[in-house]
Specification:
By secondary structure, this protein is α/β, with parallel strands linked by helices. It is 37% helix and 21% strand. The chain has 15 helices and 22 strands. The strands form 4 sheets. Strands 1, 2, 3, 4, 5, 6 and 7 form a 7-stranded mixed β-sheet that branches. A 6-stranded antiparallel β-sheet has the order 17-22-21-20-19-18. Strands 9-8-10-11-12 form a 5-stranded mixed β-sheet. Helix 6 crosses helix 12.
Length: 473
């Protein structure tokens, strides 16, 4: 039997090759065994997985059928799961799991290509940590999977919409809208929900129809896949373009000129709004692959700041423990205090609508203010295929450190951060991160500086360092 391995945010595989009904049943049975074991060990106290189990799914090929299969296995194990009656975003599953005090399971491959599907596990309103996913892996194939014929199915769409409305004043947004705005669902699980949140004549929805092939692109809200949104914004002279990924937990932003803004630009805009307008005080946390502007804002405002390994679950844990008030990641996930510790694309989209309408500014004006006060950001990421996965990141990082010169592009190295790959921070604040994937033959290289050509030069240096030893191409 093929091994089942959970990565940064769940287990994923190619449909009909890795992600099969048989393998889904194996995973479902392992989850059931893990939950029953946890409940037996904690019989006298309530734990985050002692309550009901909620099963959700996105709009990928056969996602609903896979989700039903999981529910049938859990029902056969007397765990009383409830299957969602309709496709909803991953954060809806997280919200409901937290509200009901149980576990959430989401069938989705998030932003991955159409050929993929996957399973995410949610506990206490956020992604399950490594101890849970490793625990589930340890139960794989220890018990044969069985299925029940009847399962409970219930609609939770209204509950999720009401949760979002409680977090943002949608009536005020609607009353202040003067120009059209475009929402790009990328054919994903968020389709149609903005119309229920901000029912306005100014709303323009694109790529909302169900299409398991996602219109021929990856459902990832980054520049190379948002051409349709950029064109729609320009064509309709819209005030803003808002994009959601396949399971609607990630967010992408296009300004009124049809220009894509990177997460390294989006996150500081969000931070400054929450701090100055919402009066947030406390630590800002971000993934090590995100930019330098949020740190500059934190420093100016006298707020603590921390970088953590890649994966939203790491920054979410700080939020959940009350140790942080704002959290962000390079792949377009953002969260802040006041709700569940989970990224939510729709919620972020609503806050950017609120930001623009309350302040009476366009996205480009908001960015210009950030750039004027804290500096420019030119960010780029490149993924290189390598011959084999890096077995030990720590060993790889130690070898790379020994090769480094004292200066890069005539600038002294200020700091080396090795919490997830190797991040080289220069004296001028510009940085370069080389991060091997632990599960795929990939080398991810990130860079940010105040000039586009300097960022490209940093990426070229990284390619020279990582290509010879790993056979990158």
């Amino acid at each position: 039997m093929d091994p089942i391995k959970f990565g940064t945010d769940g287990w994923r595989g190619v449909i009909a090759r890795d992600f099969t009904f048989q393998n889904v049943r194996r995973v479902a049975q392992a989850i059931a065994d893990y939950v029953k074991d946890d409940q037996a060990k904690n019989a006298r106290k309530k734990t985050p997985i002692s309550g009901p189990m909620i099963i959700g799914y996105d709009k990928r090929f056969q996602s609903e059928a896979f989700a039903r299969e999981i529910a049938q296995v859990l029902e056969a194990n007397q765990l009383k799961p409830t299957l969602m009656a309709e496709s909803l975003p991953t954060p809806a599953v997280s919200f409901l799991a937290r509200k009901m005090g149980g576990m959430g399971i989401m069938v989705t491959a998030s932003h991955n290509p159409p050929a993929y599907n996957g399973v995410k596990i949610k506990i206490d309103g956020r992604a399950a940590l490594d101890n849970v996913t490793q625990g589930v892996e340890s139960w794989i194939d220890r018990t044969p999977a069985t299925r029940a014929a009847e399962i409970k199915v219930k609609s939770f769409r209204d509950a999720y919409v009401q949760y979002l409305k409680c977090r943002v004043d949608v009536k005020r947004i609607k009353s202040r809208l003067k120009r059209s705005f475009v929402v790009d669902y990328m054919h994903g699980a968020g389709s149609g929900l903005m119309a229920e949140l901000v029912d306005s004549k100014h709303l323009i929805e694109i790529r909302a129809k169900h299409d398991p092939l996602f219109g021929g692109v990856h459902p990832e809200p980054i520049e190379q896949y948002l051409g349709a949104l950029c064109e729609a914004v320009k064509k309709n002279k819209a005030s803003i373009g808002l994009a959601l990924d396949g399971d609607a937990d990630r967010f992408g932003l296009v300004d009124e000129n049809g220009k894509y803004l990177t997460p390294c630009q989006v996150f500081p805009m969000l931070c400054l709004y929450l701090i100055e307008q919402k009066k947030f005080k406390g630590k800002i946390v971000q993934s090590v692959s995100l930019g330098y502007l949020a740190e500059r804002i934190a420093k100016e405002k006298g707020l603590p700041f921390e970088q953590l390994p890649v994966g939203f679950k790491h920054v979410a844990e700080r939020l959940a423990m009350g140790e942080a008030v704002i959290a962000g990641e390079e792949s377009g996930g953002y969260a802040w205090k006041g709700g569940i510790a989970e990224r939510d694309g729709l919620l972020t989209a609503l806050v950017f609508l609120e930001m623009c309408t309350n302040l009476g500014k366009t996205p480009s004006q908001l960015w210009m203010e950030i750039e004027t006060r804290y500096g420019a950001s030119h960010y780029k990421r490149i993924d290189y295929r390598i011959h084999r996965p890096v077995a030990d990141k720590a060993v790889w990082t130690a070898k790379l450190i020994k090769k480094l010169p004292k200066k890069i592009l005539n600038t002294p190295i200020k700091e080396l951060i090795s919490i997830d790959g190797l991040k080289i921070v220069l004296e001028d604040g510009h940085w370069l991160l080389m991060r091997p994937s632990g599960t795929e033959p990939l080398m991810r290289v990130y860079a940010e500086s105040d000039k586009a050509e300097r960022t490209l030069a940093l990426l070229e240096l990284a390619k020279k360092w990582v290509a010879p030893s790993l056979g990158a191409h």
